[in-house]
Amino acid sequence: MSVMTNVAYILSLIAPLFSYLKEEDYVSMQQNLAWLDVRAAAGAPLQEALSLPTWPARSSFQNELLVPGMPLAAMPVESLYKAWSTQQGNAFGATRGLYLGDPARHLSQVYRELAIEVPAEFASMPDHLTLELELLALLLDAGNGEAARQLAADHLDWLDEYDAALADRADIVAHNEALPSVRRRNLLDGIAFLRALAALAQRTVGEALAFANAAEGEAVAV
After folding, report:
1. Residue 103: which of 208, 120, 111 has the closest Cα?
2. Which Pfam families does the record cross-reference, listed alphabetically (predicted)?
């Protein structure tokens, strides 16, 4: 398996876990032995944190963390962590925390050019991390290192901000004594899992960038 294909495979396994999942889809992922290889490759200290939670725990935390509009929601959507638009004269301009910003509009155009249909549940967030990682995996698997490098450079530079949002939610949960203990534990474990997952995604994207850059350098040298 080539380096790009291997990275693409890891990204394809990671990507769905940032989204709201149905029980049957999540159970199928739990039964995929490849996740053990992903955890092993992640190494310490991520390996332990990347143990897939039980379905009840997953269902509990995703209902609060991965559903738009919920008080504790920390959505992995690029537009939320960047200025809404860099276009001059735009009414929202540098405003953050809004959906369908410049990144979303650009990626919508990319999907149209590639004849990729955005699932209905992502209609208001075509720049959701799940879709971005799946697109990166697709480009890597196709051997298009230059397009993968450009996508990663343009659209996957906000994961530190996402991690900070998750850390903020963890602090809120930890200091909310009104929360039932089981709910608090599920939320804190879920946040820890998502932070580890985001760290692994960021590292894997970095590996993809490094490989694409190296391949580009070799091509120029030739």
Report:
1. 111
2. Nitrate_red_del
- Provide the pLDDT for residue 207: 85
Show the tokens assigned to 191: 């946040």
Structure confidence at residue 222 as a pLDDT band (50, 70, 90) = very low
d(CA 213, CA 211) in angstroms, rounded, equals: 5
The burial of 218, by beta-carbon neighbours within 10 Å (0-12 exposed, 13-18 middle, 19 or more buried), is given as exposed
pTM of the predicted structure, to 2 decimals = 0.92
Every domain of the chain and the residues it spans = 1-75+127-218
Does residue 152 contact residue 209 with C-beta atoms inside 8 Å? Answer: yes
Is the Cα dihedral 177, 183, 188, 189 positive or negative? positive
CB 10, CB 37: distance < 8 Å: no
Q: What is the DSSP letter of 77?
A: B
Q: What average pLDDT does the structure give for the chain?
A: 91
Best CA proximity match to 198, nearest among 159, 149, 166, 168: 159
Name the residue with tokens 């203990």.
Answer: 181
Q: How far apart are CA 116 and CA 164, in angstroms?
A: 31
Domain 1-75+127-218 has CATH 1.10.287: no
Residue reference for tokens 């089981």 = 182
